[in-house]
Design brief:
With about 550 residues, the chain is an alpha/beta fold. It has 2 domains: about 250 residues, Metal-dependent hydrolases (TIM Barrel); about 250 residues, Metal-dependent hydrolases (TIM Barrel, Alpha-Beta Barrel). Helices cover about 40% and strands about 15% of the residues. The N terminus is likely disordered.
Length: about 550
């Protein structure tokens, strides 16, 4: 089933993307989408009406010339974000001259890059620049990490209380800091595209920040559909969803776009279900997930709200995920192997028809017989379908101490999920796949970059027992299509890494991919179903 999109989208929302970036950088992979046409294609495919557009390269260009060139380049619902800086050095306009230029080009928002351009936002000239532009109606975008730390932005927001800041690049790994920023800084708005914290949107809304949350994608170098799906499936009132989708951004801009994009593409049934906030209509299986203890919201270093089996199944019901493969968190991040396995066993036992476990055996100085005894015991206790080693165990996976486990897995029909010890150096995979040709080896995080995808594609072409699992918070633009073309659609698997990451972004990465609906069904679940349905030895 397909349906033609209207100008406001099937769910009645006109999505306005608060942060996109175009243009190449030194070191970009040749296949990385970064051009204006890539941005427009992604917007149309994902049903996004408008977008603010910034340049990726702010280091090698005359800032004023680049600003004007960006404005001249954009049309059709796209609006520029200009870079601004203090003008005391004589290379950039300031005061009334800058304001006149911004007005002349109808610039809706500005951006500051103090680290890249070598100035201090907390200095008198920096604070005056921000205060003057804010008084004239321009919101100020700040990229966290590269240009300013969260604490620096909080202090700047306090020092210039009349300014409206937009924090960009909110890493989900800093959820505790982001939460404090949202709660304590009422003049800071939050662009959400990198905030993949589990139930992160709902949590920020609960802190009273609903009117300061901004839909953003980071497209085209990131897949726009990841952010779109996260908001469409968010467990929030529709009025709040409308605010985040675009109303909040429109309220703070100096100038409004004069047009909306009118996508011509028809949406398939998978996209339509997502946009309606309904479960996916196809068999969907999450091949990569962790789990925390019943009632827990934390994995120690990472917040994992509702990260127990009950919470994960509630999320699965919302999105349409039918089965989930669970592995320990504390057992791979620390030394608590048995405690981690107990967590997995208890979780799987809550619903063994929808959950299965993976074993994470610390090989260390254990004898082969002890390793196998531990694995046998775990399989007697619950439904274990795979093994999950991890780099913290201290040995590469082609080390002889792992051999007994790989032989066992091959003999008993278990798969091995591999987060490489040597990050995507192909030797470990070649060793496993060649020495154990009947062992299914799943390469985790294959979509994290084009460079890693290239390695996985080469290996998949060499070894028929290797599969590519996609998940990573980069949600790299175009890489799903790249893996499908390079590995074959039948070798690509969906995984989320929940509850460390929110599964909705990872689902959206596939849901909105530029591939046929039949290929989406393969990635989302059919390929995993085929692997899980293979007969296992006793």
């Amino acid at each position: 089933m397909t349906s033609r999109q209207t100008d406001s989208g099937p769910n009645g929302l006109a999505y306005f993307d608060a942060w996109t970036q175009i243009g190449g950088l030194i070191g970009d992979h040749p296949s990385l989408p970064a051009a204006l046409g890539d941005l427009e294609a992604g917007m149309d495919r994902c049903g996004i009406a408008n977008a603010l557009v910034a340049r990726r390269d702010v280091k090698a260009l005359d800032s004023l010339e680049a600003n004007v060139a960006l404005s001249d380049q954009l049309s059709g619902g796209l609006s520029p974000v200009w870079v601004v800086m203090p003008g005391a050095a004589g290379d950039f306009p300031e005061g009334e001259a800058l304001a006149q230029l911004l007005d002349e080009y109808h610039v809706p928002a500005v951006r500051v890059c103090p680290r890249t351009h070598g100035w201090d936002a907390m200095s008198l000239s920096g604070r005056c620049l921000i205060a003057e532009l804010s008084a004239r109606g321009w919101p100020v975008f700040v990229e966290l990490g590269t240009e300013m730390e969260i604490g620096e932005l909080a202090r700047l927001a306090e020092a210039v209380p009349g300014a409206r800041f937009v924090a960009v690049n909110l890493e989900w790994t800093r959820q505790r800091m982001v939460s404090a920023l949202a709660r304590d800084c009422p003049n800071v708005h939050l662009a959400l595209h990198l905030y993949h914290a589990n139930r992160g949107i709902e949590q920020l809304v609960s802190l009273g920040a609903a009117d300061r949350l901004l839909f953003s994608t980071g497209s085209p170098v990131r897949e726009a559909g990841a952010a779109r799906a996260a908001l469409d499936w968010a467990d929030i009132p529709d009025t709040t969803r409308r605010m985040i989708a675009g109303d909040n951004l429109r309220r703070i801009l100096k100038y409004q776009p004069t047009a909306k994009r009118q996508p011509a593409a028809a949406f398939d049934s998978i996209v339509l279900a997502c946009q309606a906030g309904k479960p996916l209509p196809c068999d969907t299986i999450d091949f990569h997930a962790h789990v925390v203890n019943d009632g827990s919201n934390s994995g120690g270093s990472q917040v994992m709200l509702r990260g127990d089996a009950k919470g994960m199944l509630e999320m699965a019901d919302r999105t349409g995920v039918r089965e989930i493969g669970l592995m320990t968190w504390q057992g791979i991040q620390g030394v608590e192997q048995e405690a981690g396995h107990r967590t997995v066993v208890d979780a799987v036992q809550t619903n063994p028809d929808r959950l299965w476990g993976l074993a994470s055996i610390h090989v260390g100085d254990k004898t082969d017989s002890r390793k196998i005894a531990e694995l046998d015991d775990l399989r007697r206790r619950t439904r274990i379908l795979g093994l999950k080693p991890y780099p913290t165990m201290g040995l590469p996976y082609d080390h002889p101490k792992y051999a007994a486990l790989w032989e066992y897995a091959q003999a008993h029909g278990l798969y091995v999920g591999v987060h490489p010890y040597h990050w995507y150096e192909p030797g470990e995979f070649r060793s496993l796949c060649s020495r154990y040709p009947e062992l299914t080896v799943v390469a985790y995080h294959a979509g994290s970059s084009y460079e890693i995808a290239d390695t996985v594609i080469t290996l998949c072409r060499e070894f028929p027992n290797l599969y590519a699992e996609i998940n990573y918070s980069t949600v790299t633009g175009g890489v799903i299509e790249y893996l499908v073309k390079g590995c074959g659609a039948e070798r690509v698997l969906f995984g989320s890494d929940q509850p460390m990451r929110d599964p909705r972004h990872q689902l959206g990465w596939v849901v909105y991919a530029d591939v046929p609906e039949a290929v989406k069904t393969m990635i989302l679940g059919a390929n995993a179903r085929r692997l899980l349905s293979r007969p296992s030895a006793t």
